[in-house]
Write a structure and sequence with these properties.
The chain has 3 helices and 3 strands; from the N terminus they run βαβαβα. It is an alpha/beta fold.
Length: 107
């Protein structure tokens, strides 16, 4: 199984200055069976940042993508709602798929 780990994308006006397409090309060049994004997808946990992170993660050519929140993803009072509406739904869906395929154990 090939696992691709990404982290600290920091979408938002203050941190993310990268070229999305170039990064996507590099990520999609790997034959990953699963992508694990370990947080800080946003800079300030703003709704627009969660939407940008969601769109980026959905552009990765991998059937199974798991994301968890980091400290930057919890920076404002509504961040829980924003993350739930953008990232968490896809995480839960992926976990259900993996569990049903018996590719992952939950402890």
């Amino acid at each position: 199984m090939n696992i691709l780990h990404i982290s600290d994308l920091h979408f938002g006006s203050r941190h993310w200055k990268g070229n999305d397409e170039m990064l996507l090309d590099k990520l999609n060049a790997y034959s990953a069976d699963i992508v694990i994004n370990t947080g800080d997808s946003t800079t300030d946990a703003l709704e627009s940042e969660f939407e940008a992170a969601r769109d980026f993660l959905n552009s990765i050519k991998c059937e199974h993508i798991i994301s968890i929140v980091g400290n930057h993803d919890k920076r404002n009072m509504r961040s829980q709602d924003f993350s739930r509406n953008t990232l968490i739904r896809s995480i839960l869906s992926t976990l259900r798929i993996l569990k049903s395929a018996q590719k992952i154990d939950f402890f």
